């Protein structure tokens, strides 16, 4: 039996951050990772500016690929661009980023890391327990942490490729009839490609690689931008996308990262939300006020959750996504405001009647 102040289950983004933050506050932590780093992870690999800023505040500087904003491309080919209101975003290779954060935790006083180690409640005893083990968290099997997926099931495929021209300064979101395709510069001539789909029976009729290639080939928006496409990393899948968890904190257990729920990745908010909420969880544990964390995490997730729901109502419906992108192109200040809502820097209540009318036009 190992006695520490806190046990963190899962050594991904959220788990490593909360362990490091606790260690710096003098809390003795055991960080458990069931595999070892570097390990592959399906992900859109986008870190929004407030996530980058949070890393800087923690004294952590990861060499990702910088991006200055977003571009939405409608099924008709119309494009709307928005610059991040402050700072810059990054595209991070997930297996390298997770390893970087795990090593930072391992180098922190009061933190002991354990790889190839599953959580055994009989072995690991602590005043505090943190579940950071992802969308399919083992803690969801406990009655106090019920979780459920969204009503519309979606799946995601992510990979890296050469032979695809991407904007070196922006993340692009291409809307099509079956969902969205994310493109981003990954460095060294590679592109991050993430395809998000509504789940249906056709998914099993093709391999993941075939489905990505078929999707890219079907997009008129990529005409002239495809040149001898080749995969540089395996295509990895995740699903169902999105998750709601009613309770994320009790008197001795807190859930962080995707284990605490996740907005649909259509807004690219997952890693930034994981970092900010992990820091909030560490503060709540250090002050002995776990329920403060639940309120703060819900506040942090409110904007991206609303934004994801709003986009998904239009996604897959070309008529609506064409109108949506046209409105954002015509009203760039509205695009900026929406990005601020998604990052938690504005409340959705700050949208004016005129803003809502533009979105509906």
Q: Could you give a quick summary of the protein structure above?
A:
The protein is of the alpha/beta class and 361 residues long. It has helices at 13-24, 49-57, 94-106, 208-218, 270-287, 290-314, 318-330, 332-342, 353-360, and strands at 2-9, 29-32, 46-47, 65-67, 69-73, 79-83, 89-91, 111-114, 124-131, 147-148, 154-164, 170-176, 179-187, 190-198, 226-231, 236-238, 244-245, 253-255.
Shape: globular
Q: What's the CATH H-level homologous superfamily of the largest domain?
A: FAD/NAD(P)-binding domain
Structural Rg: 20 Å
Secondary structural class: alpha/beta
The CATH architecture classification of the largest domain is 3-Layer(bba) Sandwich
Taking the alpha carbons of the first and last residues, their distance comes to 62 Å
Which range does the strand content fall in?
Answer: 25-35%
How much helix is in the residues? 25-40%
Overall pLDDT level: 92
- Might you state the CATH topology name of the largest domain? FAD/NAD(P)-binding domain
Structure annotation, total helices: 9
Annotation, overall tally of beta strands: 18
Compressed to H and E, one letter per element, the order equals: EHEEHEEEEHEEEEEEEHEEEEHHHHH
Domain module count: 3
The largest sheet, given as strand count, sense and whether it forms a barrel, is: 8 strands, mixed
What can you tell me about this protein's structure?
The chain is an alpha/beta fold. It has nine helices and 18 strands. It has helices at residues 13-24, 49-57, 94-106, 208-218, 270-287, 290-314, 318-330, 332-342, 353-360; strands spanning 2-9, 29-32, 46-47, 65-67, 69-73, 79-83, 89-91, 111-114, 124-131, 147-148, 154-164, 170-176, 179-187, 190-198, 226-231, 236-238, 244-245, 253-255. Strands 5, 6, 11, 12, 13, 14, 15 and 16 form an eight-stranded mixed β-sheet that branches. A hairpin with a 2-residue loop joins strand 12 and strand 13 (179-187). It is globular and about 60 Å long. The mean pLDDT is 92.
